[in-house]
Amino acid sequence: MGKRILRYFLRLLLFLAVTLVIVAGSLYAVIYRCCNGPSAAAKATFVTTFKETGQLKFVPNLVMSKAEIQKIVDANNLKPMDTESNKSLIKIGHNDGPEIEDPSKKDKEKEVFDENGVRIVEVPGRTFFGKMMIVKDPSQVIVGTTYPWKELGEDLDKIVKKYNGVGGVNGGLYQSDNNKGGSPYGVVVSQGEIQYNKPSQRGLYLIGFDEDDYLVIKNLEGMKADDVKAYVKEARIRDAVTFQEEFKDENNHFVPLVIDGQGREMQGLGSGSNPRTAIGQRADGAVLLFVTDGRGAGGHLGATAADLISVMLEFGAVNAANLDGGSSSSMYYGDEYEMTSVTFYYQHASWRLPDAMVVLPKSN
Predict the structure, then answer these.
(1) Angle CA(295)–CA(57)–CA(319) in degrees, nearest 5?
(2) In-domain check, residue 112
């Protein structure tokens, strides 16, 4: 009996080993075909998409040289953009009525908000599915955190509930290895308090709101902790996180999308296709929080930089920026997830996060 069980066990191991070899070989063949096939567009999409991931950046390196990869990254990114915006283009407090014209509708259809001054719109795309959360009053959008920082972060819904919020989306750059999510990167400001201030990464942008509720997108390049502290005080920043702008094969990120109503220009594809989270502000002050799927979820690759710019302009964004995306992208509202992490094990929730853009209930 014991020898029979051992034989069965060895056969099972052999079957699993052969299956693994076949699967690995098939995947390698697909990767090789994408990177060495006749379609330059497929190769560019493949490389730029994987280079924007947190854990799978190595995949293109399996079949391509570092020089080849960098050449593709250099040919498919976004052009530099000045983020010094003109605040006079935004009139906060001019949308107090129960119904206002929807900037995304050409026929000037009235948009109707719920009791919290929030509405959620489905946004289908060619390679993604997303949802836009529109918050009429920008003062309701704050940065919620898990501060004081621990090893593990919290799911988005827990951060929202900590602040008695009604909804939110994931926020800024953070330590995401092994889904621990306990520590942010860059700078975090929550309700006027600097809770994290280590602007050591290259290409950091501060993304958040000042005390007048204007969306701020500030390049922190060259600034040290003391400089950031002085800027936060001078600019009266009330809530903000950071995300990174850098185009190289080790780390491919972008931040500004729309400034003063002008979409950012790009080279080639601009970016890969991935799950995304973005934030914007309309001329009436309303905040746009946009989240998409990708990486196979719903059969979709994800959204590109061009997709984000197009959607933000369609919804009337005067200014808009990209936030952390990928497996972190998630949206929560009204005690349920509108968009969840695309990671299989967390497909009904979010990854653990150190911070989030939290929507507070409407004050009476």
Answers:
(1) 65
(2) yes
Please check whether residues 27 and 140 belong to one and the same domain: no
Write down which residue in 33, 51, 75 finishes a domain.
75
Q: Is residue 80 part of a domain?
A: no
Closest CA to 264 of 295, 310, 204: 310
* Domain stop point among 75, 109, 126: 75
Q: Angle CA(311)–CA(313)–CA(319) in degrees, nearest 5?
A: 115
Is the same domain home to 55 and 94? Answer: no
Residues 289 and 151 in one domain: yes
Per-residue pLDDT of the chain (364 residues; tens, 9 = 90+): 566 666 666 566 655 555 554 544 444 445 555 555 556 777 888 788 888 877 778 888 887 888 888 888 888 889 999 998 999 999 997 555 444 555 655 555 688 999 999 999 999 999 999 999 999 999 999 999 999 999 999 999 999 999 999 999 999 999 988 889 999 999 999 999 999 999 999 999 999 999 999 999 999 999 999 999 999 999 999 999 999 998 776 667 899 999 999 999 998 888 889 999 999 999 999 999 999 999 888 889 999 999 999 999 999 999 999 999 999 999 999 999 999 988 876 677 899 999 999 999 998 6
- Position 56: which residue type? L
Token pair in block for residue 274: 């991935």
- End-to-end Cα, the chain, rounded Å: 75
Q: Assess whether 43 and 91 both reside in one domain.
A: no
Residue 269 lies in a domain: yes
| Residue 63 shares a structural domain with residue 138 | no
CA distance 53 to 340: 17
The number of folded domains in the chain is 2
The range of the structural domain enclosing residue 25 comes to: 2-75
Q: Which two tokens stand for residue 118?
A: 């929030």
In a domain, 225, yes or no: yes
Using a 10 angstrom Cβ sphere, with 0-12 exposed, 13-18 middle and 19 or more buried, the burial of residue 64 is buried
Sign of CA dihedral 287, 242, 358, 296: positive
Helix axes 40-51, 2-36, angle to 10 degrees: 120
Pairing state of beta strands 287-292 and 129-135? antiparallel
